């Protein structure tokens, strides 16, 4: 069977994989070494271009300290997180979020006000 594009389920699983990996500060290379694949393969998994086997997905879940159900989107929390995951695919979003976390509350408010003002323009 020839696949013409990434399957929506594979893209969603890849997004959850990437989010969990980044949340733990794990590099693609570290995950790749654990899984016995190249970091390019991990990139393809995260984009949903290549499908992960059940065994590979279970191994990734264990390494990333999460459940297989969470990566599959079958737990209650992951369904709540779907809108957040979609926003994290925007270029620079995860970096901006990490930097935002480092700001003081006053500077966070200022950054939000700036972003809102930029949207309105």
UniProtKB/TrEMBL annotation:
* CDD domains attached to this UniProt entry: HTH_XRE
Name this protein carries in UniProt: Helix-turn-helix transcriptional regulator
Q: Which SUPFAM superfamilies does the record cross-reference, listed alphabetically?
A: lambda repressor-like DNA-binding domains (SSF47413)
Q: Which Gene3D superfamilies match?
A: lambda repressor-like DNA-binding domains (1.10.260.40)
Top-rank taxon of the source lineage equals Bacteria
What PROSITE patterns has UniProt attached to this entry? HTH_CROC1 (PS50943)
Q: Which UniProt keywords apply?
A: DNA-binding
Q: Which organism is it from?
A: Peiella sedimenti
Q: What is the lineage of its organism?
A: Bacteria, Pseudomonadati, Pseudomonadota, Alphaproteobacteria, Caulobacterales
Query: In the UniProt record, does the keyword DNA-binding occur?
Result: yes
In this protein, which residues make up the domain named HTH cro/C1-type? 17-71
